[in-house]
Amino acid sequence: MVTTASRVLVLNSGSSSVKYQLLDMADSARLAVGLVERIGEQASRLVHEPLTGPGAGSGKRERLGAIPDHEAALRAVAQELAADGLGLDSPELAAVGHRVVHGGIRFTQPTVIDDEVLAAIRSLIPLAPLHNPANVTGIEVARSLRADLPQVAVFDTAFHSTMPDYVARYAIDAATADKYAIRRYGFHGTSHAYVSRATAALLGKAAQDVNVIVLHLGNGASASAVRGGVCVETSMGLTPLEGLVMGTRSGDLDPAVVFHLARVGGFSVDEIDSLLNKKSGLLGLCGDNDMREVLRRAGEGDESARLAFAAYVHRLKKYIGAYSAVLGRVDAVAFTAGVGENAHQVREAAIDGLAELGLALDPQANAVRSPQPRLVSPDGARVAVAVVPTDEELEIATQAYALVTG
Questions:
Q1: Cβ(321)–Cβ(199) below 8 Å
Q2: 228 SS3 class
């Protein structure tokens, strides 16, 4: 495919929300951003901010009232974009890029969506029952609005598909694993891809010359070991439950806990699923899943908050150490996402005591908040410590645009 158009609309369709950004890939500029939330409720809300066109500089526009489904949501988004001269009928629009959470083992690259691809994404719903159905709905509606426009799926799992089999495989019966597609897939892949490259650029090097440990720390959290631009290990597995302590997810857990809860506690499968995904992590340990609140309470002497923070940091240290061993040589550790970018206390605690691994922080640099990528390690440190704001929408747009422009 060849196109002279340069705009990409990025859609992230959730079960009751749609996040979107319109970008011009000629200079990676954002033209508009927005969010539709509470889809299917009477109190639906659309917040749209034009960054160019007639409405630029006027701030956010808000639309309240019932938005019954995703089709109505995307039509409302199209109306807001059209009001700024950025409508979906624009000849400048080259593609729509869709975030799709799970690509299984089939989808390891961004893919132009046709009926066969859409059916394959739908077939992966058992692996991502909370996310892929909403992703499919967003794709279907966008295709109905612009049937002539390339729709590109960019998969959260794709960046991690380069993990060797001995890393991706669980040590269970191979026939059972193959039958039910049980393996480690990893998630947050667009963020890990973007941040690993941006960290290399921050060091003034090419991605293929740098080994990076990326720590994506939001309400969901994951770590990855990236060797020369290629992911060789990541903390999330079959689902986003494995790995780090998260806002509401337990992370690593003895599988026998599940059996114990079922046999001794009488828990159903759905109750265990809810416990481990929605009532664990920071929330389970101290009753708050917002790191800002955990830090506030810990600072006031709250013991449960201190315990939650200590557990969170301890798991981070374990993964930094493990991935240092996996990579052999580490050039940088990069913190990203809401907690990683903003909670200097988390970075300080995670790096503390790791001098033998070549890791140290400059306290003054670490305490500074900035939207810019930056180093927070001392000059001359053997391993750089970086804070790199993630940009998953730009990564999705970049991959989609590269595909449709050949």
A1: no
A2: coil
3-state secondary structure 142-170: HHHHCCCCCEEEEECCHHHHHCCHHHHCC
Are the C-beta atoms of residues 86 and 77 closer than 8 Å to each other? no
* pLDDT tens series, the chain, 406 aa: 445 789 999 998 887 888 999 999 999 999 999 999 898 888 899 999 998 767 677 788 988 989 998 889 988 999 999 988 888 888 899 999 999 999 999 999 999 999 999 999 999 988 888 788 888 988 998 898 888 999 999 999 999 999 999 999 999 999 999 999 999 999 999 999 999 999 999 999 999 999 999 999 999 999 999 999 999 999 999 999 999 999 999 999 999 999 999 999 999 999 999 999 999 999 999 999 999 999 999 999 999 999 999 999 999 999 999 999 999 999 999 999 999 999 999 999 999 999 999 999 999 999 999 999 999 999 999 999 999 999 999 999 999 999 999 8
Q: Is 24 a catalytic residue?
A: no
Decide if 383 contacts 377 (C-beta within 8 A).
Answer: yes
Lookup: tokens for 48: 């749209």
* Catalytic position from the list 24, 156, 288, 302: 156
Distance CA 50, CA 32 (A): 4
Of 333, 301, 313, residue with least CA distance to 244: 313
